[in-house]
Amino acid sequence: MQDNWPSVLFAMAGGIALSIGNLISQYAWAFVGLSVTNIICSSLAVVLGTTMNYFLDGRINRAEILFPGVACFLVAIFLGSAVHSSNAKDEEEKLSMSRGIELSSDVADQVKLLPNQEAMEDGEDGDFDTGTAEFIVQVEKRRSIKVFGSSRWLGLGMVLLAGVCFSLFSPAINLATNDQWRALRDGVPHLTVYTAFFYFSVSCFALGIGLNAWLLYRPVAGVPPSTIGAYAGDWNGRHWALLAGLLCGFGNGFQFMGGQAAGYAAADAVQALPLVSTFWGVILFGEYRRSSRKTYLLLGCMLTMFVVAVALLMASAAHRKTG
Predict the structure, then answer these.
(1) 138 with 127: CB under 8 angstroms?
(2) What is the DSSP letter of 170?
(3) What's the pTM?
(4) Which residue would you say has higher pLDDT here, 59 or 36?
(5) Closest by alpha carbon to 83, among 250, 244, 287?
């Protein structure tokens, strides 16, 4: 037994931050979309988290390369906000022109205007072209989180809050493994990155179970209430959720291993994940189909800035001195 509880608590705090960030971002996906949500979350995590890690790591990364990359991430945040705002206007215009649907703050009234669920199951509403007003309405009807009539700033606020949570978990692991704040007593060894990752995962798992169980009975964002029994009996799509958890776990573990070797600031290059999620969102899920030229231009600029930022972050890597 070691008196290393301060480091253990740092690791567990990181798991709590990640769990809350994941939960918020899953709601934000419905409001803002997969592409913009992940871009803003990852960029904000880098702007805040990478800066903290740079100073926690004793400035081992090359600042002349690192901080221009951080600045590019900051620009990507503003571009992501502009993409969301432009796309929201595009969708409002499609809906008002196609069916005369007037968007209001009353979600219940909007649901009455949506296609009939039985007709959708019979296939009558199943052949809408991606990006059309009918397709947007169909998606709103089928998913549990209702976004019609909500403020566009609500979604962006959720994204920003998720990004802040994501910016904290990597510095917390950094503190847990390297004890920069000297919270451990003299002679007490630091946690290894693997031990820290274990405590990180335990707290993330425990909070995730607790929050989701509570939200089953007290849902938000128009989600219908449910029970633990109903959740346990419904395995539709559950394999995708389990796969997502495994991928997240492996990704976090490798990020921490890389951070311990080359600096946690450079390891934040793992935030390149939105480049993959944008492919999923645009190609597979039809985000931004039939949008305006302005939206496409902003989306292209956002992705370009993000690629440059990731490249600069990777180029700033250095080896941690262990002796």
Answers:
(1) no
(2) H
(3) 0.76
(4) 59
(5) 287
